[in-house]
Specification:
The chain is α/β, with parallel strands linked by helices and about 290 residues long. The protein is about 35% helix and about 10% strand.
Length: about 290
């Protein structure tokens, strides 16, 4: 385990009995409330100083309520220092009303995420209104978390190039096909994406892209190593992806695995990965 306080840059909380979440209907292990009490239990023994909440794909009608609900949770646990809600950025200029409503919630709103991983059009993020919506985000002080599968990386690279003023976070290292040990073309496309200085990469969600029942650290190792190589120590952050990751690993096992895979890093680089880079990207409070 890291011997210093860490930042979990990818936390989920939810209550399917309160907000409709269609995607959990067929996943009984996830189709139940996961709140702060459960998170504290699952992370017992790990020194987590701060968290960033990521939207959980509630039905769009509930999206603004979700952001407000999490802001209330942050008052209960001030370690939730950042919130990244959903926003309809595909509406371009017409997304302003929603972005203004998010900004009114308060400074804990750090960015937005509009998942495109389930869109059948792999170029969905290059539709003109979507691009325009992403270009608007810096006006509100928001960054953009990107949730895609590896086969959508080419379009994502072009989106980033069209939005040089927007800060991007690639979630789950772009969801490569770890289960089948496929590295290319993900490997080269990730290098191309990393050449854009406005992108940071989140090492999260790897265990659920691997064989959820039989994965080993060796399965993940080449992916973690490549991310560190192409993004460098200043643009990689840790994320727990709890509770989604519980389908494949306990919180402690994921932390222990990543800690072992990055044990060769210098003490300074380890602190950047586990805490400092997330604080910088999401504009969190300085470490106490």
């Amino acid at each position: 385990m890291p011997d210093f306080p860490i930042v979990d840059a990818h936390l989920h909380l939810w209550d399917p009995t309160r907000f409709r979440m269609t995607w959990t209907d067929e996943i009984p292990s996830l189709n139940k409330p996961f709140d702060l009490a459960e998170y504290r239990e699952h992370t017992k023994g790990i020194d987590i100083a701060a968290m960033v909440y990521l939207q959980v794909e509630v039905e769009p009608a509930y999206a603004l309520l979700e952001a407000q609900w999490v802001a209330e949770r942050a008052r209960r646990d001030p370690r939730i220092q950042g919130i990244v809600p959903w926003a309809p950025i595909e509406y371009g200029e017409r997304a302003r009303a929603f972005l203004e409503a998010l900004a009114a919630i308060g400074p804990s709103i750090k960015g937005v995420r509009r998942l495109v991983q389930s869109e059948p059009d792999n170029a969905f993020c290059l539709r003109p209104d979507f691009v325009r919506g992403v270009q608007l985000l810096p006006e509100y002080g928001f960054s953009c978390d990107v949730g895609i599968y590896h086969y959508q990386l080419a379009s994502t690279i072009e989106l980033v190039r069209r939005c040089p003023g927007t800060s991007f976070m690639l979630d789950h290292i772009g969801k490569p096909d770890i289960k089948n040990h496929v590295l290319d073309p993900w490997r080269e496309q990730l290098r191309e994406l990393a050449s854009c200085p406005n992108v940071v990469c989140k090492v999260s969600g790897l265990v659920t892209e691997a064989d959820v029942r039989r994965w080993t650290a060796d399965d993940l190792a080449p992916y973690v190593a490549h991310v560190l190589e192409v993004f460098g120590e200043d643009r990689v952050v840790y994320g727990g992806d709890w509770p989604v990751a519980t389908q494949a690993a306990s919180y402690a096992r994921w932390v222990e695995t990543l800690d072992a895979l990055t044990a060769h890093l210098s003490p300074g680089a380890r602190r950047k990965l586990w805490a400092d880079n997330a604080r910088h990207f999401y504009r969190l409070s300085p470490a106490s």
